[in-house]
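Morning!

As promised:
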Amino acid sequence: MANTKLMGLFQDPEQAAGAMTKLKEDGFPVEDLDVYSGSPFPEGSFGEHEPETRLFMFPLVGALIGFAIGLLWTAGTQISYPLVTGGKPLLSIPPMTIIMYENTMLGAIIFTVLGVLFESRLPRRKLGLYDERITEGYIGIIVDCPEERAGAAESALQSAGAEEIKKEEG
Amino acid sequence: MHNGEHELTAGPLPTHQDVARDVLGRFQELGHRFWGWVTVLAFLFVLGIVGFVIRLSEGFSDENRENWGYFVATLAFIVTTFTAMPVISAGLRLAKANWRRPLTRVTENMAITGLLVVLMLIPALIALPSIDGRLSIWFEFPLGAPGLWDIIGYGTLALIGLALLWAVALPDLAAARDHLPASPRQRVIGWLSLGWVGGLRQWRVLYQGSLLAGAMYLLTYPLVQTLMISDFHHGLIPGLKDAIIPATVVVNGLQGAVGMTLLTMYLMRRLGNYERYFSVEQFWALSKPLLAFSLLWFYFWWASFITFWYGRQPGESEVIRLLVLDEYRGALMISFFLNFIGPLVALVWNPVRRSVWGPALVGTGVVIGALVNQVRLYVSAFSVEDPSLHVMDPRPATQWPAPPDLLIMIGAISGCVLLFMLVSKIIPVVSIWEVGEGLRLVKVRRYLNRYARVIAKSH
């Protein structure tokens, strides 16, 4: 069954919050509702679903890979070209620490950038259901619902005071 | 945006829409004034390249290593001021300081100077003598230390800075994409915005990503300062064994970052009419860490000095004569006054702190002092004849800048300002979304016989 997306556009955050309440009361699952805004609101302001992200895993994995590369690189180099100086141990830990540290940070940031792109679902070639007024402070309430419930969603958005309602076929 | 006055009224605060229209209106302008500044800065930057080419034509060798002293001092100055600025936004965002909102973007846009730093690092590394037979923090990798390791370190900092700048700017790039008239510039901005729409997931990821990238910048900046001072100063001066000098230059970098932020905000008020965003509140708030870093400047310098003073080994005595008592005494005195005495005397007074001109003036002094101090540290090190000795012999004379050195210094600093101006026409110089978010958390309420600003904490 085809899904439809609707966006109600609100200038007043109070009305947007009211629309979210109405939609939930009308049986629209909170996971199918999204809020577009030009700046973030404190979590839970609209009674919205809090999306789960795993961004913190990305720098952790990147840091581990970077650290491992740094360790293999420095230890491998010294073992491959053994230069024993004054009877001291072959592996020189302090310079190895610096190189491992910078490789750790390099791995962490590369994976963080990848994580931001992946978790934000970016880049998007098309904006889809969107309105330019959102970056001016308007709030868009997005409803993803089966086609036969589009009328109910539209009337909920309308009754909450939406300035405009846009529709996109899924 | 804050009204910055101490007498609050119950009048309406500006809205997100007001801020977006105001910032994007200024952002859109590419008038004669902007191009005039760009032309002047580009000309000065080209002069810097001329100075660099002159030095390049004289080549790299142990006999003329002192030719590169001012080049390296300029590189260190950029690392200590311009490139240090994103540390401010990263730290204040982690601390959730509400007053940071109008100034974070200014500091993040300066991350672009990391590219110039990486470019300048290459000739600076070539000018270094071999690490054979002298003190160094490296083991001898067959492909050559410290070149590769330094480039990875500096490159990582530059990459983190650009990642932080881009990630945090995504919503404002989207705002510019949405509201600028169609043009090649608007298309570039649209491409950089990657189709940002501002959904719940995107905001959550942006919030976490900005904290992560900021924390990484905070962790990597000390590494870069450590590499800078170890390879270009400490390892070149016989007899110099200073355990705290990496920490010293990190503190100097934090002081330089605050000083340069104050100076930049002041210039943007005067030349860009950004008074609404950079008000007394931002200057006042930044003057406090500036005072703290100025006290730490002295503390760290003194802790190093007293160790050498009591040590009195022949090598240590020569180091003190070179850097403190004789050849570079003048440079130390200037830096001592501008980085410690001046800020201390001026900023202990609350009326000076609670003004725009006071912190801006002190910040300008701090920046000039930082430049003179880098000359003292790096020009002296590059003029040492034989870094492999245990005691400096002979102690090098004071080296004054030659015309190519002056061209390089002016050109490189102009290059940083030019990069900042150009990037500020791709990424708005005031963070619309962060200011907009802050405005929603602020209400002016009646409190007894006056009005008070109430700031909500959402976490």
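The CA atoms of residues 84 and 154 of chain B lie 12 Å apart.

Hope this helps with the figure draft.
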